[in-house]
Description:
Elements (H helix, E strand, L loop, with lengths): L2 H10 L5 E4 L6 H9 L4 E4 L3 H15 L3 E5 L3 H5 L1 H10 L3 E7 L13 H8 L3 E3 L6 H14 L3 E7 H4 L25 H13 L3 E5 L7 H11 L2 E4 L13 E4 L6 H7 L4 E5 L18 E6 L13 E4 L2 H11 L11 H9 L17 H11 L5 E4 L6 H6 L9 E2 L10 H11 L5 E6 H4 L5 H8 L3 E7 L4 H7 L16 H7 L4 E4 L2 H11 L6 E6 L10
Parallel strand pairs: 1-2, 1-3, 3-4, 4-6, 5-6, 7-8, 7-10, 8-9, 10-11, 11-12, 13-14, 13-15, 15-16, 16-18, 17-18
Amino acid sequence: MKVFEAIADAVVARGVDxxxxxxxxxxxxxxxxLVHRHGVRxxxxxxxxxxxxxxxxxxxxxxxxAVATVTQGPGxxxxxxxxxxxxxxxxxxxLIAGDTPPGDPLHVQHFDQxxxxxxxxxxxxxxxxxxxxxRDVGLAFRAARELPGPVVLNVPIDLADEAVPxxxxxxxxxxxxxxxxxxxxxxxxxALARRLRTAQRxxxxxxxxxESAAAAIRELADRSGALLATTLMAAGLFAGHPYDLGVAGGxxxxxxxxxxxxxxxxVTFGAGLNRWxxxxxxxxxxxxxxxxxxxxxxxxARWPVTAGVLGDAGETARAVSAVLAPVRRPHWRxxxxxxxxxxxxxFAGLAVASTADRIDPRAFIRICxxxxxxxRTTVVGVGHFGGWPNLLLDSAATDRSFVAPWEFGSIxxxxxxxxxxxxxxxxxxxxxxxxxxxxLTGLGELDTLARVGAPVLLVLxxxxxxxxxxxxxxxxxxxxxLARFPERDLAAVARALGAPAWTVTDDAGAQAAFDEVLPLxxxxxxxxRVRPDVVQDKF
Length: 539
């Protein structure tokens, strides 16, 4: 048995049935073995960065540890942004990267992969010898699950082709330990209970790290008379609760913004509290802020807090509920507020106006709200365009159905994350919102979308510009033409690469396109030419 075969066996033994990647000298025989001997599905991307993003999208929507593979040198180097996104999102992911022979420092593709992997993924596991290959695969998977985060499993090209020495190839696979929930200190529990007891206008704010604790946080909110809110990453977590304010942050809706301005206590659970969540201090300016997190380094790291509680979100919420007598706050949880929340219309008061050849993006999102299937995975890429679906569309974070890979602020994420999400959850369609500039950084993945054939509706909100840069340049007197580009027929490009596509410039065209696209059974692209002068103030 060759080392690459032993690695394939060890990967499959951990339940892996799908691998994303790009073939190259240092990984092509591993991929061929996974596919032909083990029946693993290989999703071939057109770019290594996109391949790792696809694996990240797969992990976020399935909860499984994802696997991707790239070749040596430039293969790993190109994937740096995607590894950094996965690291910041704490996505469990193993990237099997080839490497040049250690004895050939003049190899054309040589560079020191270990420091690069540590700077991006954060964890590096080298396969040092033929006899340790199986063990090293196990170390990589354990690290990805238990840290959690991405791991680069480094396999030199010459070592991959060596014979595994006789004898046991390694211990039987040990499944990763499920981390024990971190129980908060009783003194911190009592202190938080006192704050909730004495506050007049408390709010419980949940982030993505608290998704599994939603029921416990709801119970604590009902017991303490608090209102509920989420970060953008956990949008929809409390949908249906009569006192759910929705998303707290720069993309808060007007009613949410008005209510949060009066909060005197905000308790965050599993939320990456930062300047966006607090809208640069404007969202809850007079509130005492308490952060509950399992990572002590995260408490107060990006936004000042009054106090922190080190503990699992669910364990902490249940512990506080256990020592807190029920509190009624009819002035805060009023029937008037619940009635307002029940009928709140995100499109109310918008002065929507399309032109002869370009639709107002808010008009298009309003049509989306009425036409898109409720049961879907929603992916929103990074850019000015992303403010519209995030602000105006209702999302459900339950069952991993909302993906906003904004962690590193990297454009070009929408399409590859959508492909990975669709591969991971083929039981529901994916709707991905992307911008023209963002798509053009990875245009080749339209080919991947067409080849995969999954039900993905890619919505391109095209303003023929880098909209965020235009928005920031013009007010300071700098010519925004630097960030504007000629109009391109992106629908024709999509069709040329095998994906059915329609161009939308007005309301009637949008409705007609949805008539043809829905129900979504395969890939489709809506190229939506939007007005470039409609600005999302809170992007």
